[in-house]
């Protein structure tokens, strides 16, 4: 037996070491994925100049966010594929393949010619690459969360799966730091010419590191036990929609707050602060960086609290808080200085971790082992396709159609209300994982 194999005979002393490898393997893929999304979102104005130079600033920004949103349309399809693959073949195999596709497509963005070189083919190629990214990324969040959930001790599944949202925020943090540094050191002309390409080049080495770590692990104990117990061929996709429809609906509703909140508060916000509130661009990135630090620091606490007080209570509280406080906090954003804006962003980030630190373990508990990857991936990715990838576009559209800079806050409040109501629909919250698989 290899040192990375986790079996029932493995000693308790070696289990922490295995968990550290599992955490690292789960962390890296989401980190790469959201690093890319962060860079794309934070450099939206620059990317608009490169790929949509003949449009007005607003139209170019909408087009750039439109490409961002369209790339999410394929995520439910990717969720179905990777979920079925992960439930049928194994979590580790699915995660190892998806990270290679995702990191390669991210790297390709750095090599794309702009509109000045090949005309309309440039934004068309950008869209194609983003679609490939969306397809591969659809398996990451659900797969990593399922992987951690099935390895973790039952009384600490909340804090262990909170590594997944922490990894996404760390990817955003590195993206924010890099973009802040680039915008501070390079001129606008240099950024438009070649500076914007530099962050995307990091995807290749990071992806190879993630693939190496994942290849050194066995699949989860729960999945291996399921394989040994079952003699009949499994049909995860069919079983998900035939026997777990209610769980899929609940998962979709609960995940919508994560989708809207994450992409509005942690991806779109620098653009919002600079374009709508006219904050200096470097200051906008700095403020968002501080908010991300608060998010990363508090998401583990929320995951631990979910182990103690229960997932439904935490998620319901998060939905109610957003429904009540989003609009007042955005009103304050419009009147505060840099310190005030930074503190408000920090507070919004901590609010979001009430949902995000709890969501991975909640969604994993909604579905039995045999369809966990499929149910989690489809509901989570459908929410992100409908509400997450479109969030920057919707926020920009709502502001310019209503003339109100607080329009995104109403969108956040609505998402919080839907999430809270979905917990009620679950009739007492998430099912606990059961020994009957």
UniProtKB/TrEMBL annotation:
Transmembrane segments: 34-53, 59-82, 94-115, 127-149, 161-182, 194-213, 247-270, 282-301, 313-331, 337-354, 375-398, 410-430
PROSITE patterns (UniProt xref): MFS
Keywords for the protein's UniProt record, in alphabetical order: Cell membrane, Membrane, Symport, Transmembrane, Transmembrane helix, Transport
Gene3D superfamilies: MFS general substrate transporter like domains
UniProt-listed SUPFAM superfamilies: MFS general substrate transporter (SSF103473)
Span of domain Major facilitator superfamily (MFS) profile: 22-431
GO CC term (a single one): plasma membrane
Membrane topology: Multi-pass membrane protein
Cellular localization per UniProt: Cell membrane
Pfam family, one: MFS_1
Domain of life: Bacteria
GO molecular function annotations of the record: symporter activity
Record InterPro entries: H+-coupled_symporters, MFS, MFS_dom, MFS_trans_sf
Function: May be a proton symporter involved in the uptake of osmolytes such as proline and glycine betaine.
Record-stated family: Belongs to the major facilitator superfamily. Metabolite:H+ Symporter (MHS) family (TC 2.A.1.6) family.
Identification of the protein by name: Putative proline/betaine transporter
UniProt source species: Haloactinomyces albus
Lineage of the species this protein comes from: Bacteria, Bacillati, Actinomycetota, Actinomycetes, Actinopolysporales
């Amino acid at each position: 037996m290899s040192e990375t194999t986790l079996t029932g005979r493995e000693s308790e002393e070696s289990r922490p070491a295995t968990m550290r490898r599992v955490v690292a393997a789960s962390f890296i893929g989401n980190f790469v994925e959201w690093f890319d999304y962060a860079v794309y979102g934070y450099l939206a104005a620059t990317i608009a100049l490169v790929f949509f130079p003949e449009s007005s600033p607003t139209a170019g920004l909408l087009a750039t966010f439109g490409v961002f949103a369209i790339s999410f349309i394929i995520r439910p399809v990717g969720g179905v594929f990777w979920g079925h693959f992960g439930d049928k073949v194994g979590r580790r195999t699915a995660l190892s393949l998806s990270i290679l596709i995702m990191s390669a497509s991210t790297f390709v963005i750095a090599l794309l010619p702009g509109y000045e070189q090949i005309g309309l083919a440039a934004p068309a190629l950008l869209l194609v690459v983003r679609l490939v990214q969306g397809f591969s990324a659809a398996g990451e969040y659900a797969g990593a969360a399922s992987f951690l959930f099935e390895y973790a001790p039952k009384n600490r599944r909340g804090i262990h799966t909170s590594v997944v949202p922490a990894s996404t925020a760390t990817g955003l943090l590195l993206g924010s730091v890099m973009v802040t540094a680039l915008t501070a050191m390079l001129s606008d002309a240099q950024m438009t010419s070649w500076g914007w390409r530099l962050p995307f080049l990091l995807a290749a080495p990071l992806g190879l590191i993630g693939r190496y770590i994942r290849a050194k692990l066995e699949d989860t104990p729960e999945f291996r036990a399921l394989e040994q117990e079952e003699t009949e061929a499994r049909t995860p996709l069919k079983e998900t929609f035939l026997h777990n429809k209610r769980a899929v609906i609940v998962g979709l509703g609960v995940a919508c707050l994560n989708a809207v909140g994450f992409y509005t508060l942690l991806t779109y916000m620098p653009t919002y602060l600079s374009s709508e509130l006219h904050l200096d661009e470097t200051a906008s990135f700095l403020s968002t960086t501080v908010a991300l630090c608060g998010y990363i620091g508090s998401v583990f606490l929320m995951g631990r609290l979910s182990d103690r007080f229960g997932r439904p209570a935490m998620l319901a509280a998060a939905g109610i808080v957003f429904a009540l406080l989003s609009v007042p906090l955005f009103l304050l954003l419009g009147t505060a200085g840099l310190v005030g804006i930074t503190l408000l962003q920090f507070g919004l980030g901590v609010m979001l971790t009430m949902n995000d630190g709890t969501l991975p373990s909640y969604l994993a508990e909604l579905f039995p082992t045999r369809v966990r990857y499929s149910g989690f991936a489809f509901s989570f990715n459908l929410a992100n396709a409908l509400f997450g990838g479109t969030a920057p576009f919707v926020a920009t559209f709502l502001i310019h159609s209503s003339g109100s800079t607080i329009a995104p806050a109403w969108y956040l409040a609505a998402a919080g209300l839907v999430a809270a109501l979905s917990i009620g629909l679950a009739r007492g919250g998430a099912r606990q994982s059961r020994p009957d698989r």
